[in-house]
Write a structure and sequence with these properties.
CATH topology: Collagenase (Catalytic Domain)
Number of domains: 1
CATH superfamily: Collagenase (Catalytic Domain)
Helix content: 10-25%
Number of strands: 9
Length: 272
Amino acid sequence: MDLRASISLLLLLLIGLSQALPVTEDNDQHDFSEDETEEDYDLTEQILGTNNASKELLLEGDLVVPKTRNALSCFKNQCLWRKSADGTVKVPYTIKSYFSTSEKNKMKRAMEVFHKKTCIRFVPQSTETAYVAIESRDGCFSYLGRTGRRQVLSLNQRGCVWHGIIQHELLHALGFQHEQSRSDRDKYVKINWQYIRPETRSNFAKRNTNNLDISYDYGSVMHYGRYAFTTKRGVETITPIPDSSVQIGQRRGMSKSDIQRINKLYQCCSKE
């Protein structure tokens, strides 16, 4: 092999390697946790599997049904967290003391991405009566948006304390629904109703969502995976259209689109 051919082959190998590795920092498509890899777990299967025995009445797998209002009409019911005079949106929270130092650090790292990329600020609760209480209950779940009182966000220690799941549930607490529940979802995904258990079909209902003029995002951390609520392992309940090979339901952290949505909904000065 001559020198020119060797150099060409080396360049091709380097290009291939660069595409296989995740991009870091501000050029990254997602803000990943440094101690997890894409193969660690499937976010949807992990959440739904952990919630399987939950005693909570849950919609779409991980949304708590409140007794006082419709959990899925957040935008109309003004259940967003309030902006402070300094332009930040402070969300008070508590974390139960029984979580380990490692688990608490994972939660704080997940929160720091919001702090770095948006005007959301998760702050320790002091005298506020409306706050998020992070506990380890029987599943991974949250209320949708601000309820105006103490609201539980459950991160079960046996299956929920993962970077992507923490961010997923925090996004619910900020008022964001699942991506495949969008009002325009039928343009982007096909729901294979015949493979969904009848008692769980309501989890795939379309909602009257505020899409914020932001494109549908197959890579949102809020998107179900292909096999959510399937009747048979390996059979898809959600298929992307028109290209069925598109990856959906990534599990490693917020996408750029997720961050754009936060900044638009809460009228942040975008940091993207």
